[in-house]
Amino acid sequence: MPELFEFIGKVSLFGLRAITDASRPPSEGGQIGRQIVEVGHKSLPLLIASGLALGSVMTFHTRSSLVSLGASADIPTILSLAFFVEIGPLSAAPAVCRPCRL
Fold it and tell me: How far is CA 43 from CA 32, 36, 57, 77, 100, in A?
């Protein structure tokens, strides 16, 4: 049990140190904002195409099962949650895999 408390303390101190170090100058807020806009703008066609494909496939696969179980009213909720879980790594991939250009 003491090891658990020690681990929690170390993780808490690491998080606190990360937050304080991120708020000290020099701040990279402008560069971070530019990267978010650039990556978001250039990955939008990929997200739209994969979203349409993923949404249609998930709808075809899950609709019949949910209707037979009487959960037809929950189809939009279940599909939207599954969509965000599945599309999250895909939307983060362009930012990680693409080489950084300054």
Answer: 16, 11, 21, 25, 15
In a domain, 79, yes or no: yes
In order, the DSSP letters of 39-85 are: HHHHHHHHHHHHHHHHHHHHHHHHHHHHHHTT-GGGHHHHHHHHHHH
Domains in the chain, number: 1
pTM over 0.90: no
For the segment 58-85, what is each residue's pLDDT rounded down to a tens digit? 888 888 888 888 887 888 888 888 877 8
Q: Tokens for 37? A: 């806009």
Say how far apart CA 70 and CA 81 lie, in whole Å.
Answer: 19
Residues 6+ apart with CB under 8 A from 66: 72, 74, 75, 78
Please give the structure tokens belonging to residue 17: 């140190």
The amino acid that residue 7 corresponds to is: F
